[in-house]
Design brief:
Layout: H1 2-14, H2 16-45, E1 55-61, E2 67-68, E3 70-71, H3 72-78, E4 85-99, E5 105-112, H4 116-119, E6 126-127, H5 132-137, E7 140-143, H6 145-152, E8 162-165, E9 168-175, E10 189-192, E11 202-209, H7 215-232, E12 240-245, H8 252-286, H9 288-296, H10 301-339, H11 355-371, H12 374-381, H13 385-389, H14 400-434, E13 444-448, H15 466-481, E14 486-492, E15 503-507, E16 513-521, H16 525-529, E17 533-536, E18 550-554, H17 555-561, E19 582-587, E20 602-606, E21 618-623, H18 631-641, E22 648-652, H19 653-660, H20 662-696, H21 698-706, H22 711-743, H23 756-782, H24 786-792
Parallel strand pairs: 5-10, 7-9, 16-20, 18-19
Antiparallel strand pairs: 1-2, 1-11, 1-12, 3-11, 4-5, 4-8, 4-11, 6-9, 7-10, 8-9, 13-21, 13-22, 14-21, 15-16, 17-19, 18-20
């Protein structure tokens, strides 16, 4: 085997163009796969914590099947089950406003019990993590590496420093390493969560089960506990306690997207493999006499096979090394693109070409070497020694060209799948961006101004009542109205395209209670958003607390509650003071929690009469020029009313929309890049195959010309020989494309998975690329001297 490797190395050194072509193709395919696998490995596969297999999540399931947080008394009841759990801890999501450091800032925090860090086996990179004793004696805080750098500029002297968070004073005792992310990657601070039997919160609970306790035994024990709790409650019928692996709690949106991208880049690798297979097959056809001489001198089939495998392994190894370099460069671009997404991917900071990725690369190298050596091996096994030694060849029109046709058909089939996926996503994105969504995002600036932040253990007294919140809103609107260049100005408690939803009960026509999405807005909200008023009037300054309750419906809710079309002037069918209001207007449907879903029923209430969900409050202004040009002026105007007011996510409405459709935008971008790469590899493969098969058919083409065939007829013969396998590949992959398109149906908007324009366009593009790649070899064959070709033969 060593002699085989040395011989292969000498041959490759004497054929630099062939070697460079194979290595370049493999570098692109392997590099793209290695880069994408690096991200998938970091985000989806790599364990987040030590001994993660024994970490479980515990939650209560109601009798209606809804998962709920665990009440504090329930958690205190069973957390002492040391026969089942080695440790357990509770935590809660919180949002706090930090003041006194620089500009007021809102931070995503997690309230945790003191044993959480020990349970996760997590250690601080600076300082230490808290214990229960710290919670009893003070208010410790632990910072994430990102918050430490953002607010404290990576100052190592931050330990012991105090800061104010929503009216509470905390002392920093530690900074976590960049790779620590719990429970999600967007959490930037961990604060104390103190529990007692009288607490009314619902907890998120994790535990470390004892290694000897199976998942089934653990679930059975918790079923007994759930039955005991159900007997003690009036509404406990059907309640159960579910125990699941902590690893199972993942975001399906980015998980599905990453898996699809990994599958797509795998198709690119197969196309590259077909390219290399074609090059090796052409070389094997040229070496038939050499292999026949070796066989006649006593070399058996396994001896020849070993030599061919040695050459393939050497090429695959060189391609893998080059692929690692390509992966390193591609990974930088991919990491930047992923970091720019509005969703925070876990462990993105630790993405690298590590030992796991190198192992993946090595396995890929071995598999590829075996895969693209199949053609030369099968050809060697079918070689007619006597024919070859007499000066003949197995590569005529009925011989090796069949293998080339199969490779071209495979490349066409794989490229067609990628082009269809890319085309569907691009058309979907265009439809999504151009559809009428009931808003006009041009020249609109938004800025979150969260007030009345209520943490899990503390209430901010500054805006703790609705009257105080209303007064603040009124002062803020008056201040912003004085700014030049902006009209109109509005406040909304819960802006569209966020993951938070507020709702009130409304009685439906069938007597059933409906929970309807609700927003509290100021008078000029619909003008600021560009949402047309279809009937009635908008809110006015007279719709204050002393006036009768009023409401505005979107057209979907108006049709549902008042099918006769007489919504304006009617009272909402409910006895609730908030929802039993007089309908004064109907507006066009507008986006809610998702820009991609069809809007459902929505209710609007005037902020002066009712305020809730103020922690998401957002200012919306429509400007006469560039919205970002007034961003700093807007912040100063807000701080003129309250210098401690955090101003979060100052961005245009267009950017808000772009962030909300990150999945189709990112998927369309990556599939387009992969589709272009597939086209480039396919065109290279077609060109090399046409060039070589034309050389194999030189005698046939020379005879055709000698018998009177025109150059055009010869070119048609050559093109027909390459277009036929391309068409066969497209036909074969059509059914697969229709099936695989269903897998990306959740990413599509306004475009069917069997969109004919996409399929026809992808087929025509692929056939055009194949024809263009064949033109030069076909032209050379058509204008070759037939006498020279016949003398050569």
């Amino acid at each position: 085997m060593t002699r085989d490797f040395l011989w292969a190395l000498r041959w490759l050194r004497h054929n630099p163009l062939f070697t460079a072509a194979v290595i370049a193709i493999l570098a692109l395919g392997i590099g793209a796969n290695t880069a994408v696998f690096s991200i998938v490995d970091a985000v989806l596969l790599r364990p987040s914590f030590s001994d993660e297999a024994n970490l479980v999540r515990v939650e209560e399931i109601s009798g209606q099947g809804r998962p709920n947080n665990v009440p504090v008394p329930d958690y205190l009841l069973w957390r002492g089950r040391t026969d089942l759990f080695a440790e357990s801890a509770a935590h809660l999501r919180d949002v706090v406003t930090i003041t006194g450091i620089s500009e007021p800032s809102q931070v995503n925090a997690q309230r945790v019990t003191g044993d959480l860090f020990h349970l996760l086996r997590a250690h601080a990179r600076l300082g230490r993590t808290p214990a229960e004793a710290d919670f009893r004696s003070g208010n410790p805080a632990v910072l994430s590496d990102r918050l430490w750098r953002r607010l404290f500029h990576a100052d190592p002297a931050v330990l012991g420093r105090s800061f104010n968070a929503s009216g509470e004073l905390f002392t920093i005792i530690g900074v976590m390493p960049p790779e620590f992310e719990f429970p999600r990657a967007d959490i930037e601070m961990w604060l104390p969560l103190r529990l007692d039997v009288g607490s009314t919160w619902g907890l998120l609970v994790i535990a470390r089960k004892r290694p000897e306790v199976s998942q089934g035994r653990l679930q059975g024990a918790m079923d007994v506990v759930a039955a005991q709790l159900a007997r003690e409650r009036k509404d406990g019928a059907g309640m159960r306690i579910a125990v699941s692996r902590l690893r199972d709690d993942s975001d399906t949106k980015y998980e599905t997207t990453l898996v699809l991208i990994l599958a797509a880049v795998g198709l690119v690798l197969l196309i590259a493999c077909a390219d290399v297979g074609g090059l090796l097959l052409s070389r094997a056809l040229k070496r038939q006499k050499e292999i026949a001489i070796r066989a006649s001198l006593g070399a058996g089939f396994w001896r020849v096979l070993r030599q061919l495998l040695a050459e393939s392994l050497l090429l695959a190894a060189l391609g893998s090394v080059a692929g690692i370099a390509v992966a390193h460069l591609a990974l930088q671009s991919l990491a930047r693109q992923a970091a720019a997404l509005p969703v925070v991917l876990p462990h993105l900071a630790s993405v690298s070409v590590n030992e796991r990725v190198l192992l993946f690369n090595t396995i890929l190298c071995l598999l590829l070497a075996c895969l693209f050596s199949l053609g030369p091996v099968l050809l060697a096994s079918k070689t007619d020694l006597q024919l070859v030694l007499r000066g003949g060849t197995m590569g005529g029109p009925g011989g090796g060209t069949r293998w080339f046709a199969m490779l071209i058909a495979c490349e066409a089939a794989l490229s067609f799948l990628l082009l269809v996926g890319s085309g569907l996503m691009i058309r979907s994105l265009i439809r999504l961006e151009q559809s009428d969504h009931g808003i006009n995002p041009d020249h609109v600036l938004t800025a979150r101004v969260p007030i009345g932040t209520r943490t899990q253990t503390h209430r901010d007294l500054k805006y703790d009542t609705r009257p105080r919140q209303i007064v603040y809103y009124r002062e803020l609107l008056e201040q912003l109205t004085r700014m030049p260049g902006i009209r109109p100005v509005a406040i909304v408690n819960n802006p569209p395209l966020t993951t938070v939803n507020t709702a009130v009960p409304v009685l439906g026509p069938d007597g059933q209670t409906l929970l309807v999405s609700t927003r509290t807005v100021s008078e000029q909200y619909f003008q600021a958003m560009g949402t047309p008023l279809l009937a009635g009037r908008a809110f006015t300054a007279q719709d204050d607390p002393a006036a009768p309750r009023v409401a505005i419906l979107n057209q979907t809710l108006a049709r549902r509650l008042f099918p006769a079309g007489d919504a304006v002037g009617r009272n909402l069918p409910s006895s609730d003071v908030k929802s039993g209001a007089l309908v004064v207007g109907v507006v066009k449907d507008a986006p809610q929690m998702s820009y991609e879903r069809t809007p459902e029923g929505e209710l609007y209430l005037p902020y002066q009469q009712i305020v809730f969900g103020a922690f998401m409050s957002t200012v919306i202004v429509r400007t006469s020029g560039d919205p970002l040009a007034v961003a700093s002026t807007l912040q100063k105007a807000i701080w003129a009313v309250d210098p401690d007011q955090p101003v979060v996510q100052v961005e245009t409405l267009k950017d808000v929309i772009a962030d909300s459709i990150w999945r189709p935008r990112f998927s369309a971008w990556i599939f387009t890049v992969l589709g272009m790469l597939a086209l480039a590899l396919t065109s290279a493969g077609v060109y090399s195959v046409v060039t070589y098969t034309t050389a194999l058919r030189v005698r046939e083409l020379g005879i055709r010309v000698a018998l009177g065939a025109t150059p055009r007829e010869v070119a048609v013969v050559v093109l027909r020989g390459i277009m036929a396998p391309l068409a066969v590949g497209l036909a074969v992959s059509l059914a697969a494309a229709l099936f695989l398109a269903r897998l990306i149906a959740s990413l599509l908007y306004g475009v069917g998975t069997a969109d004919p324009l996409t399929y026809v366009g992808a087929a025509l593009l692929l056939l055009s690329i194949g024809a263009a790649a064949s033109l030069r070899p076909a032209w050379r064959a058509a204008h070759a001297d037939p006498l020279t070709a016949l003398r050569t033969e």
